[in-house]
């Protein structure tokens, strides 16, 4: 009697999938139940990362790559066969089973897709780190890049992100966020090699993530600690107070990047002065620069981002130019 005989119990095929982004051996309880109850467990990949853990748990795993018909035959008599899927998900096997089921001439076993582990939020970041590592190693261009050489791309991507936000384009926003994230991972990968231009000690993307996690927790005592904040103003007060203790700066101007656009620089200086409660008269001088400085300070005091305001006006100017040229928007 074989699996195609009417009298034969059809049995059960369980395709067990796992995520490579989750540590091997961390499987769901239904997955362990299915594995222990199975009459046979198969895996086509002898180097599958789950196999040592399954065997340690007392599960016999046969290294085999059965055809769809082989698998159906293995289920004869109501037996259950678990297939531990490889990274590709066994498309040839599932396609073969679908073709046999489509003939209508075979009594098919019960088919079940059982995810044994699931990706956690942020799991795809592991893929990005892995891809970046390979690109850094194998790509002739990427392997030669330095922090200084990539600096200009970080600036460009940041501006493109701002443009996507101001345009309200969600698809573009998602793409530009990815481009900015790439810069972070790329720089961290370079730093991991310990070949930084300044000769500093190497660090990895985990060090970067660990540092910002610690900073966020420390600067949000109203979330992770005992302090209370019920308004955005109180949150900002907590943030500035904690930051001041961390940095121990002698001047409120410390930490302000002087290479940023002029209007943004002027507004940031004005914000620090106002927050510190200082009375600092604006420098006087001839020329448009001092006029722009005064306008930027006035805008910051009114809660207006002068850079963003100027970009809005500049876009309106661009549209006017195109209209004068007879070019559609």
Radius of gyration: 30 Å
Q: What is the helix content?
A: 40-55%
Which parts are unreliable, with pLDDT below 50 for 5 consecutive residues or more? 1-6
Shape: elongated
User: Termini, distance in Å?
Assistant: 74 Å
* H-E order: EHEHEHEHEHHHHHHHHH
- Beta fraction of the residues? 5-15%
**Could you give a short account of the major beta sheet?**
5 strands, parallel
In spatial order, strands of the major sheet run 3-2-4-1-5
Task: Let me know the average pLDDT.
Answer: 89
- The structural class is alpha/beta
- Number of DSSP E strands: 5
Number of helices: 13
What can you see in these coordinates?
Strands 3-2-4-1-5 form a five-stranded parallel β-sheet, with helices on both faces. Helices cover 54% and strands 7% of the residues. The chain has helices at residues 29-37, 51-56, 68-74, 91-103, 124-138, 147-167, 170-192, 205-218, 221-224, 232-247, 262-276, 288-301, 306-325; strands at 12-17, 40-43, 62-63, 80-84, 110-115. It is an alpha/beta fold and 329 residues long. The longest helix has 23 residues, at 170-192. Helix 5 packs across helix 7.
